[in-house]
């Protein structure tokens, strides 16, 4: 019994290490896009990702063929959604206008844009994950896309610069 | 600009700056994950222990109180001496 647990533990550690080495770059990028932080200064994204990865590690033996990347992404998205709900309206709202390409969007718009366009999650899956109707997810995604490509006048200068670059290319 | 072009433009916008993965991310995640697992094991043990204690308490109470035995009557006086 003890022997089997040790073998299972070393196997889990080895597999998890390979998974983190392969997936953490993309997942950290996702988390940084969600929190709208600068790529070189992203404490909140790191914290979110560490917690999501720890959860995946704890569930590793019970995945049973499920994709660990998918699981971590779901956990990340839900943690972000619950976190913004809790700190909604607090002083931290001012900080969300800091940096990143999606800084001009609301938290929910950011979450849907990242899941749909960056991660390529299907509309139905994103809707099921967030508990929203499918049409609503599509509407929010379209609106957020429009906001990103044609930002309002008071938008942050980074977004305006990004739009100029996209238009030029 | 149709929908596909707009989505491609947003994708391009998002893929530009890639953050650097910190070196201690893996260690942190494993440490927290191990703690989570250990807590789960402790919680499961406590649950079994509580269940066992409740079972023992119920058995002891049942053997001492004997709730299935009919209680002695308090309205009819005992029939003695006839």
From TrEMBL, chain A:
Any one Gene Ontology BP term: DNA-templated transcription initiation
**Which intervals hold domain RNA polymerase sigma-70 region?**
102-144
* SUPFAM superfamilies (alphabetical): Sigma3 and sigma4 domains of RNA polymerase sigma factors (SSF88659)
Q: Name one GO molecular function term.
A: DNA-binding transcription factor activity
Q: What InterPro entries does the annotation carry?
A: RNA_pol_sigma70_r4, RNA_pol_sigma_r3/r4-like, WH-like_DNA-bd_sf
Q: Name one Pfam family in it.
A: Sigma70_r4
Q: What is this protein called?
A: RNA polymerase subunit sigma-70
TrEMBL record, chain B:
| Keyword Transmembrane among UniProt keywords | yes
Q: Which residues cross the membrane?
A: 46-64
**UniProt KW keywords:** Membrane, Transmembrane, Transmembrane helix
User: Its domain of life?
Assistant: Bacteria
UniProt name for this protein? Uncharacterized protein
Species the sequence originates in? Streptomyces griseorubiginosus
Starting at the broadest rank, the lineage of the source organism is: Bacteria, Bacillati, Actinomycetota, Actinomycetes, Kitasatosporales
